[in-house]
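Journal club side-thread
Mid-discussion, someone asked how the predicted structure for our own chain would compare to the paper's figures. Pasting it here so we can look after the session.
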Amino acid sequence: MGSESFRSPYTPNTDSDRRRMLDAIGVSSAAELFEDIPEEHRDPVLDLAAPLSEMELSAYARELSGMNAAPGDYACFLGAGSYRHHIPAIVRHITGRSEYMTSYTPYQPEVSQGTLQTEYEFQTLCSLLTGMDAANAGMYDGSTSLAEGALMAARITRRDRVAALDTVNPRFIEVLRTYTRSQGIAVDVVSRDSPEIGDRTAALLVQSPNFFGYMEDGGRFSELAHSKGALLVSYVDPISLGMFRPPGDYDADIAAAEGQAMGVPTTFGGPYVGIFACKERYVRQMPGRIVGKTVDTRGRTAYVLTLQTREQHIRRERATSNICTSVALIALMSTVYMASHGKHGMRRVAEACYQKSHYAASLIEELPGYSLPIEGTFFQEFVVECPLPPSEVNRRLLERGIIGGLDVSDRYRNGMLVCVTEANTREEIEGLAAALSEMGGAG
């Protein structure tokens, strides 16, 4: 394989250009750049099937899709950050319209009034839901929203440490460390029961319901953070806000959330939409973008990008983030979900999740060999200590058409994090309890 293999008719580099570049980096040929790749994989022979006609390809696609499990084939009790909720038909009907599907990223928003309006409505509903002064038009997802909240707090306070409770989703903490490492910001994981933060701490990060499904005392942590001059960054489940106090009620400075639960299918983990809101006095440090409502020269309602503080638009050193894409389509799904439910509908969904999960917990707790190791109020998830390792429990459950919970044995002995939402029927819940009961005496 020589350098000729890497030439492209669309790359206007001459032989002498390529030679100078190779000399500058100290290699004799372009092939040397690929030496870390095993030779048998550098130029593989692609054994592609013969081409198919449109009818043949459609038939093949149907054959492949038939291998998927039907929605009703499995009862699912897995959550841990991505949740199965009922999605009203109106969500798919509206977001499936071509004018939305084809305007996913409005690079010229001044001619995309419909897209800007939906983002404005998304912001408004997120502000109402979280009880915060202002919300942006969406982030990549919930985990990056939380990380961006930590960076924002560091900019505001000019401090170089952030603290996260040990009940925050461990995957979120991994994302947080990735985001803060290049910024020179240290991450401290502190005990939920006795958190200690210092004078260099920019923010205390709290998740409620926490990773294990239990509600945190937002007021307590708000007072602690503010007593040290730090900000409180609160990560919430938006569905839980239908019945529990929003971050604005306990004086949180920044609120983050994952919008997937509201109208977005689990879809193997994405794409999702992050919710981000804050107090008004911090809005100029908010990442992402904000859509505003105004009037045009004829007095007609118009929507504009009011704030977009990324390096494409302002001086690089003043940019608040490098978010350069739009999750407008996913945000629209959540917008339609919130608007169609209204505050009373959101409360009914939250109450159904709460009641069904507590019914499931009451059945499981009575089974020989099972226990609930955490005390307190939980929303839709709870930890169960099992008589067998969760991997074995889940294997046996799957044989019965049940997707079990997440293995959290690193924190609790044979611990399994079980999720129950309004989408789980009474028959599914009782079927889970019956299946677990059969394993109760197993060794």
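Post-session note: The longest strand covers residues 201-208.
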